[in-house]
Input
Amino acid sequence: MKAVQIVKPNDLRIIEMEKPTIDEHNNVLVKMTAAGICGSDVGIYHGTNAAATYPRVIGHEMVGVVVEVGPTAKKVKVGDRVIIDQVVPCGHCYACRKGRPNVCGNLQVRGVHIDGGYREYMAVPDTDCYLVPDCLSDTEAVMIEPTTIAVQCCSRAQLESEDTVLIIGSGALGSSILRIVKQFHPQKIIVSDIDDAKLQEALQNGATDVINSLKEDVPARCHELTDGYGVTVSIDAACVKTSLITALQATGSAGRVITMGFSVAPTEVNQFVITSKELDVRGSRLQNRKFQDVIDLINAGKIDLRGSISHTFPLTEAQKAFDFVDSHDPSIRKIAFTFDF
Ligand code: MN
Ligand code: ZN
Output
């Protein structure tokens, strides 16, 4: 079968690899039908993702159809359309025992530490498969995974309707987060970005206020918009050098600051801004079994992921797809691979 392997940074190849077989643990064989390109896939391709190991078959937004099940498989049957959870935890470390497998001390992520979805078949445990809603095409269904990331950060923030929320960044991640934050009906949803067009879009999608961070001071504006208190939750979906201090300054007493970035660039913060307000600074990584939550939201008609794919490429044209991503063409929203080649 064919697969896309990043042999080493900036070296993408279409390879032939052996088709996997099911066993007692990986008891479901999935024939892949769609796989999304995520910023982190691009990072692994370019060698900027510190977590990745090489050579690696990347892709963690993995949609397919079940073609074979073992006797122990209960959750799915042949013919089911599924999306596959990317988190493979050890099950016994402290994080796993605390019910937080997404930050397992021995974490393996499909498409990052172990081979992912840019290949024709995958053998996975039935418990990692989630049924794709009928209203979504296979390519649209890849969007379930980024949406789980948004659900995870809202869960980490313990979002409630009395919160006022700042989302820093209105790109792909920020827009997914906005979509989920809205579900909690907070008092205010403030979105900041450097791009006016993206801010306009955020307003159309439910932001109550927007701030262009090139033109205005984000913390000052957040205090103005919240009667001087500061927001109660800030979520960093921009993950740039200055966004942590911005979030800390924008957030009021007893608030939560959620970080999502993977940058290792040092950034200056001070203790007072955290201690004086007893801020909770919490990381949000991947997702902790959030696929069903997202699927339930879709099936309940609360979120609509239809129409979110801007471009598709057959998997065998992966090089062309990644070159297109590098062109930063403004028409790019979400790109998905198809497997009809
Ligand atoms: Mn992703
Ligand atoms: Zn573990």
Q: What stands out?
A: The CA atoms of residues 222 and 228 lie 8 Å apart. The pocket of manganese (II) ion (ligand 1) is lined by residues 38, 40, 60-61, 145-146 (CB under 6 Å).
